[in-house]
Amino acid sequence: MSIKLPQAPAFGAPVEQRPCPELLGFLATRRSSSAVTLAEPAPAAGEIDALIRLAARAPDHGKLAPWRFIILRDEGKAEYAARLEALAQSRGDARAAAKLAKLKIPPMGIAVVSAPRAHEIPEWEQVLSAGAVCTGLLYAAQALGYGANWITDWYAYDDEAKAILGLAPSEKVAGFIFIGTAKEPPQERERPDSQALTTVWRP
User: pLDDT of 108-121, one tens digit each?
Assistant: First the structure.
């Protein structure tokens, strides 16, 4: 699928804000696809560039861009999975090796790396910004018509696995967004009672 985004506004230009009922409908029925149902075709190079551009518009207090992206696809993704599998096998951890199916099966993924800066903006806010990037990337992929899933598993937290991905000691994986064409529609899951989770503050 081709994608043509509006030109990014110039710095300091007023950005029109208008209602978007289509977006509300999308959010009301949005559902992640199981990673193991994702197959080719995956986004093409131009689509990936567009998805990252959209995700990078996430809220970012201080304009620090405290995150980065690592694209996993084709031979690179296969080699990354093979090294993780070798790591799991070297530890005799069959369960960890089996969990790599969610990485191996989808045709591509994008790792969103949280990379907080030394700054007066609290680290917590920078980490939250990386989470917002994951959400934006997930939603953008689905809005483009692809199935997508936000995954974190042992290889997001394991120090040796993070080193294989090329992370610095100060960096963390905010999420792997796996993207492809869903072979079957996802089924709706139970949703929380939003009213039960909401209170109104009163003095």
Answer: 999 999 999 999 99
